[in-house]
Write a structure and sequence with these properties.
heterodimer; A: Immunoglobulin-like; eight-stranded antiparallel sheet; B: about 180 residues; mainly alpha; Rna Polymerase Sigma Factor, Chain: A; Arc Repressor Mutant, subunit A; 2 domains; 9 helices; about 70% helix
Chain lengths: ~260, ~180
């Protein structure tokens, strides 16, 4: 890297700001030692920051100077403002020192108490935030459940909707369900009242029969969390609805021996 | 800027030989400027005093490692104070926040409201306030918060090359602002 490139790169500024890595520092030190333009540029950058600090100088309290010089074992002369005679006495200084210590202790206790309080409040805040999140979740669940109920109610109350009771066959006397069917929108809802849990790998399938031809109307989810009223496939035309117990996922045409429910429109 | 004779280097060289009077003179010449820098880093009077005292004791102890061929005395001294101050701020931040929160805005955060209000009225804005905000940010993050250029690029989302060029531009603008002030 040439001196001009180095100067334009911003590395010299970074170096003075203390941002360079050891290898970069070594490079800058080397260039400073060997190139006068780099040396001049670095000096200029250092003087800018020095001037900034001087412009923003803020005198420190005299006690800092006294403490610094005391810690290097300097018998402080000069720069100390002479006290007016008679204004200070050893007794007064002792009293002042005692008062300072007392103030420090009070301040420390205060800080500790304040810190404990902030700690406790942060804990409370975390608990409250937790509560709020779980409440929001509960509300969301309730809202979804209410919405589902409203949708079901709307179906039942719709004057276009035809109610088709489905009854069990000779072998499934206890089974019972209802179909809500809207021929105008073709929506079909299956409302299961009593139906045994299907064995593993099996699922109830709804069929619509029109002109003697069965049409698949969808699978009923018997999972424990599934709603008992479920929206099925849309059906345009039907004289009969029937439910069979089929392999999970459904079959293209109904297994008549596995008929569970049936009802005329 | 015309290169000035580095009075600090003369004093520091004397300090290297154990000259306590020279050290007291060094303190009198530079403590206010260094205190101003430290105050801006820690944002609290009490912490600034602590850092200043600590830094000057370190200056006394490590004076022998100062090399006038490698830079000005003030740069060397203020960097000792800056490192002490930045370390203290980071340790305090880490303790207060279990290390979770980042350090980004600590400069104005450590002190009380009054102290912060006072800081704003210090000469800070007189000079730094003249910089464009995006340039001033570079000085803030690098000089007063101690971030490397890569760290600045990472946390601001600005490309590393831009961080470098902005830092250089910031120094040049600072030079102009200081000239106007003088």
């Amino acid at each position: 890297m040439s001196a001009a490139e180095l100067i334009a790169s911003g590395l010299l500024e970074a170096h003075v700001l203390g941002q360079t890595s050891p290898s970069e520092t070594a490079l800058v030190d080397h260039m400073r030692a060997t190139d006068s333009s780099v040396r001049a540029e670095l000096d200029s950058i250092e003087q800018i920051l020095e001037a900034l600090a001087m412009a923003n100088a803020e005198p420190a309290p005299a006690r800092v100077r006294a403490a610094v010089l005391a810690s290097i074992g300097h018998a402080d002369k000069g720069h100390v403002v002479a006290m007016k005679p008679g204004t200070s006495s050893t007794g007064g200084m002792k009293w002042l020192a005692a008062a300072s210590v007392a103030a420090l202790v009070v301040s420390a206790i205060g800080n500790w108490m304040l810190y404990s309080r902030v700690d406790a409040m942060e804990e409370q805040l975390a608990v409250m935030q937790n509560d709020r999140t779980s409440l929001a979740q509960q509300m969301e669940t309730q809202r979804a459940s209410l919405e589902a109920s409203n949708a079901q109610l709307a179906v039942v109350l719709d004057p276009h909707v035809v109610l088709v009771p489905l009854a069990g066959t000779d072998t499934t006397m206890d089974a019972a369900a209802r179909i809500y069917w809207d021929p105008t929108t073709k929506d079909v809802y299956l409302d299961v009242l009593t139906l045994p849990q299907p064995p593993p790998g099996k699922q109830y399938q709804l069929w619509a029969l029109a002109g003697g031809q069965p049409v698949d109307a969808g699978m009923y989810d018997s999972g424990t969390n599934a709603p008992h009223v479920q929206r099925m496939k849309t059906i345009a035309e039907a004289q009969t609805f029937a439910v069979t117990l089929e392999d999970a996922g459904g079959v293209p045409s109904p297994t008549l021996s596995a008929l569970v429910l049936m009802g005329q429109v | 800027m015309v290169s000035e004779v580095d009075k600090g280097a003369v004093l520091l060289t004397a300090v290297q030989n154990g000259d306590q009077e020279a050290f007291a003179e060094l303190y009198d010449q530079y403590s206010a400027a260094i205190h101003g820098v430290v105050l801006r880093i820690v944002g609290s009077n009490d912490m600034a005093e602590e850092v200043l005292q600590d830094a000057f004791v370190k200056i006394w102890r490590s004076a022998r490692s100062f090399d006038a061929a490698k830079g000005r005395a003030f740069t060397w001294m203020v960097n000792i104070a800056r490192n002490t101050a930045i370390d203290l701020v980071r340790t305090a931040q880490y303790r207060n926040n279990d290390g979770i929160r980042t350090l980004d805005k600590h400069v104005y955060r450590m002190g009380s409201d009054e102290e912060r209000a006072r800081m704003d009225h210090l000469g800070m804005d007189k000079v730094l306030g003249k910089l464009k905000p995006e340039l001033r940010e570079m000085i803030d993050l690098a000089y007063y918060q101690g971030y490397s250029q890569q760290e600045i690029a990472d946390r601001t989302g600005i490309a590393l090359g831009t961080v470098k060029s902005r830092t250089r531009a910031a120094l040049l603008q600072l030079k102009e602002a200081l000239k106007e002030l003088a």
